Amino acid sequence: MADETTTSAGVGQVGTARVKRGMAEMLKGGVIMDVVTPEQAKIAEDAGAVAVMALERVPADIRAQGGVSRMSDPDMIDGIIEAVSIPVMAKARIGHFVEAQVLQSLGVDYIDESEVLTPADYTNHIDKWGFTVPFVCGATNLGEALRRITEGAAMIRSKGEAGTGDVSNATTHMRQIRQQIRKLSSLPEDELYVAAKELQAPYELVAEVAREGKLPVVLFTAGGIATPADAAMMMQLGAEGVFVGSGIFKSGNPATRAKAIVQATTFFDDADVIAKVSRGLGEAMVGINVEEEPEPVRLAERGW
Amino acid sequence: MTRTLTVGVLALQGDVREHAAALEAVGTRAVPVRRISELEAVDGLVVPGGESTTIDKLLHVFGLVDPLRAMIKEGLPVYGSCAGMILLADRITGGTADQQTLGGMDVVVRRNAFGRQVDSFETDLEMAGLPGGPVRTAFIRAPWIEEAGDDVEVLARIPATDTSGREVAAAGKIVAARQGPLLATAFHPEITGDARVHGLFARIIAGDDEGRSAG
After folding, report:
1. How far apart, in whole angstroms, are the C-alpha atoms of residue B117 and residue A45?
2. ipTM score assigned to the predicted complex
3. CB contact under 8 A, B118 and A132
4. Closest CA to B171 of B163, B181, B161
5. Is B71 at the interface with chain A, CB within 8 A?
6. Pairing mode, if any, of strands B153-157 and B29-33?
7. Please, which residues have CB within 8 angstroms of residue A41's CB and are 6 or more apart in sequence?
8. Do the Cβ atoms of B140 and A132 come within 8 Å?
């Protein structure tokens, strides 16, 4: 566990909020790709991913195969860390602080406390302040994002609905978070106390968001992004970067699609570039319509 | 300064907004740059922190490498932090097999030299040419300069011991340097709220700070 006075190469303070949040700042405008093998990690790096997310099964397979989904095998994570020089993230189950301790000891660069895995605790999330490694957490609305930040999350991603290739929930969650931030910013100061109560988040954090008009950490999007246009739309809706899960390696031509999504994320506001990179990508992932998915299987409803 | 300087921030990927805010704080006008046409309007350029391999690939895909190399050769002032330092280096080590740089500074930069994210740290660092005490710095999966040519002015090194007097493994490594109008730091002053490094860069652009080589 972290001791904020331990030194890196003996130089300074490690694991501070600034270096945790700062790491996410460096990923902005980039694409983080789910990979399940070192070969896929290499393809992602070659395509221009800013980081890879190492996991055993992509969400589409987790959804198809069912069962309990857990942290990946350390050998598999080591293999991916060996294969690439870009940052490597990995997922821990919600509330599973020992999986998180293991991932930190393996040297992963970011932990995703993720609803895509089966939760280990239906009441508490991980106390993330105690770790040197930073955490990203999913959120469907502003209150959820602020509760995760209160627990120490250094980066937030909208949840969307992972493993579907259906971008509609990512859109809903991103619009919801941004709309609630805009609403907070418009409130007079004396109404922020009740706003904090309604958001079920600490007043200081709510007041900070109202003042700054943004979260105090980087906000990415995730869950259902399958095409360059999906990624660009999420960026236009205010995402600062994109997680792509099943959308790349469940498609017909992963290397080409990965490159196209990277380029569309950078030029998210330039339809000519998006049109150009959208050509000749082959089959997109088949996809599942979220509305056809029975509620018990909706991953976004995990976490609170 | 007789007119407001316009400073581009290369906006392909990375912490563009933080650099833009620091540049505005020292009285320059910051504009994001992703296209050749946008490059032609700037007095200087910041290459931000980010993922150097990603920025390198996007520079190539969007045809920015040759124009930027030509502008650097012609004397465009450029400041690179972290990934930006890697991109300004003539030679790198620890990169991917196909990784290239813009170059311009006669240095060898080691990518991810300080280790992984769990080794990222913040500290106070003395920097030559910056009055007002040490700079608060954040090193995030940071590189360092392994070798520097004779024309490179070293502005900061990792000290031999930390504040509690313990010896430091990275002692003496170069983490800030300048060569003519090119400035590079391994750390991120843009996220610690100390705009003095950006102030120095603004003076370099304005020609108010000639550095060692001119003196």
Report:
1. 18
2. 0.95
3. yes
4. B161
5. no
6. unpaired
7. A35, A52, A54, A80, A83, A84, A88
8. no
